[in-house]
Amino acid sequence: MKTLQSLDYLVFLFYFLVVASYGFWVYRKKKSAQTSSKDYFLAEGSLTWWAIGASLIASNISAEQMIGMSGSGFKMGLAIASYEWMAAATLLIVAVFFMPIYLKNKIYTMPQFLNQRYNSTVAMIMAIFWLLLYVVVNLTSILYLGALAISSISGISITACMIGLAIFAVIITLGGMKVIGYTDVIQVFFLVLGGLVTTYLALNLVSEKFGDTGIVKGFHHLLNSADDHFHMILKKDNPNYLDLPGLTVLVGGMWIANLNYWGCNQYITQRALGASLPTARGGLLFAAFLKLLMPVIVCLPGIAAFVLHQKGSFQTEMMQGGELNPDKAYPVLLNLLPAGLKGLSFAALTAAVVASLAGKANSISTIFTLDIYKKVINKEADEKKMVWIGKATIIIAMILALIIAPMLGIDKKGGFQFIQEYTGFVSPGIFAMFFLGFFWKKTSSNAALFATVGGFGLSILFKKLPGFMDLSFLASSGFSKANADGVYEIPFLDRMGIVFLFCVIGMYIISMIDRRRGVEMKGLEIDTKMFGMNKSFAAGALIVCGLLVALYTLFW
Hints:
This protein is an all-alpha fold. It has helices at 6-31, 37-42, 49-60, 63-76, 82-104, 110-117, 120-154, 158-173, 177-209, 215-225, 248-251, 253-263, 266-273, 277-298, 300-310, 329-334, 341-377, 383-404, 410-413, 415-424, 427-439, 445-464, 492-516, 535-554; strands at 319-320, 323-324, 481-482, 488-489.
């Protein structure tokens, strides 16, 4: 294990001081106005489009994603970039169709939307569920895997890294959404710069391995030496088909995962909910452009490590417990960086973790304060009291995550898969509940409850199905594939798409029965004019779509 040198610590200290001092300056500058809870939790009206866009990406990309997706790049190639590139398309859909509904109906939290659209029972069930999910699954995994990543390149113990990250994140989060939003701009700058430095090093190493110099030649050698790693749509005979089942990434379950994450997730939408519609849309468009760049930072280093490994490099460094571990690709490359640049990458990883932790902690405190404390525990709470409760919630949530994280065995599952698996059980039902709640006024609250509980039950049923039923008959259509044990199972993303369809059908039937019984539905205020776009947004969206078509055509 390599350790950081004095120059690395100086670079990291510079990063820390820049973020901390800028955050403090934002806090002091905006403090006079910070009297309302909505201002504290949502930075109402004060985040610019570039701050919203940068904050969305900073909250989304964490260390486990940089390491996990580089590992997936090593194992399956550029195909894993579908999570990033399809997210760019998803952000445009959220900007055009979801944001106008949220802002027109003055929605500040996701449980508030469910309360307004359905009833308080659905809202409270989901508020408690989201709190548990955010603390027990998301906060813990970001904290533990982030500490694991930083420990692997710095030599500092995992426990010390976890405590340091938690304290840094709490300091930023206590400043409120304004401080998070604006410091995220700096976090993204370091994240992108540090990521590009690692990609530059990786491509240079490939170039040198083939007796050339320069990153362009390095990329050409990647294309020639690992042609099988540059296909976005995997065929049925590909060993990674279960993870990314062919066209499903374009027309199936990938949309459910992405639309639920980017459109129905407090953690993400919170950044835009306090803004005007043009500003919110501008932020989402900026985030879409940044998403197009992300595979260069998170996938290419993994593919480069694969080619170098094939050529005899990293034979011992990539091993863990006698087996090849693809997730070691990114840390192995980081350890080759010279002094100073390694400090920059250390800062980039820390920025990714701290920004994600701050965003999650802020969402936890927003949902608890506005949807549970104010509605159930203390209905008379004034603005000052609610801000105080929000700050206390942040500290308690982070302490709980510090205690729980080491007990979950997260590192044994693979970080990216850990989060995808647990959220994938519930996202089809949740998205069905939001989707019909938005666009079909006849959807009833009983139907919403069915989607929540039934969606989860159906996800577990399809997961366990191969244990008591032979699914090989689906193999010819691509809806099942033999796993490592020879058992045919339905690919994860296909499973999400199937569960979503079952939930929508079930919700339609229940809503029609409720309507016949005379149950009153609570539709939202929707006007088709809300979905109109200004020229600059439409032009930017067209450019994003054009680039996506070009990328998928080039790397089909």
